[in-house]
Amino acid sequence: MIINGGLFVLCWILSLVSPWAKSELYWWLSLNPSLWGAEPPFLPIWQLVTHGFLHSTMQPTHVLWNMVQLYFFGTMLEAAIGGRRFLVTYMAAMVCGALLQLFVMTVSSNSIPAVGASGAVTGIVVAMAALRPRAQIFVFFIPVTLWLLAAVIVGLDLINGINSLRYGAETGIAHWVHLGGALWGYLSVKFGWIQVDWIERYRAHKAVAGEQTRLEEDLKMDVLLKKIHREGMSSLTRAERHFLKRVSSRK
Questions:
Q1: What is the pLDDT of residue 17?
Q2: What confidence score (pLDDT) does residue 165 get?
């Protein structure tokens, strides 16, 4: 929330000081189908993430509404699965939403850039609804279950997304980003991915791989030491000398 809010303020100030610079910034950091379809092939993969931290400076309600949802549903989900799992779910929903948006825009030959945390936020809402479908919240003082709220949100995005493709009825909202994020939110709960601490799993894998590398290097070092004992240092190749120096400094 701090990053999103801070970037919004900075970009708004930039739009006042230098509209050209702000336009260039958004051109390169938004989810811009024009760049992905450029010739020769160009893949600005950073946009899969950067677009989710930019918002329209012309509509403050854009960032405000996203942050309100992120605060309420994000704190609920974080309390249920923990901070690291929440972060992975949030970022994965953001990327999944971006990929679906790019696919649909490419197929429909649409080049309108997209910005906003909506895909990630929708993923969080749907994930929370999939985890606690019967939990109730109040929407304008009306009690609503999470599964019903999520179904309404996804249903409206699906209808508007299809209408925009069929009739060209642009609403100014990247509905396919929302749907991609929602898809990840649902699948991550259905298949149990949301319960996996991917960061810890990566660290454990890295630790095991590092230990395996160390054992292999120790075995190779023993072979080199025996060679030196038999034939002397002059018998070592340049690569073997480099390896000996590196491993010796490690120890």
A1: 93
A2: 83
Q: How many CB atoms lie within 10 A of CB 90?
A: 24
* Helix (H/G/I), strand (E/B), else coil: 121: helix
Q: Which pLDDT score, from 0 to 100, does residue 79 have? A: 94
| Max intra-chain CA distance, the chain | 86
Residue 144 pairs in a beta bridge with 137
**CB atoms closer than 10 angstroms to residue 63:** 25
Calpha distance 55→72 (Å, rounded): 19
Q: Mean pLDDT in each 10-residue stretch from start to end of the chain (251 residues)? A: 94 94 94 82 90 93 94 95 94 97 88 92 97 89 92 94 78 89 96 89 86 87 86 85 81 55
Taking the C-alpha atoms of residue 173 and residue 56, their distance in angstroms, rounded to an integer, is 11
Asked if 35 and 112 count as a contact pair (C-beta separation under 8 A), the reply is no
DSSP 40-71: S----TTHHHHGGG---SS-HHHHHHHHHHHH
Q: Which two tokens stand for residue 229?
A: 């004992």
The angle formed by the CA atoms of residues 84, 103 and 36, to the nearest 5 degrees, is: 90
Token readout for 117 is: 């945390």
Domains assigned to the chain: 2-196 (1.20.1540.10), 201-250 (no CATH)
Tell me if 1 sits within 8 A of 67, measured CB to CB: yes
What backbone torsions phi and psi does residue 137 show, to the nearest 5 degrees?
A: -130, 170
Q: Is the dihedral of CA 107, 108, 113, 114 positive or negative?
A: negative
Which helix (H) or strand (E) covers residue 143, if one does? strand 142-145
Prediction pTM value = 0.82
User: What pLDDT score does 244 carry?
Assistant: 83
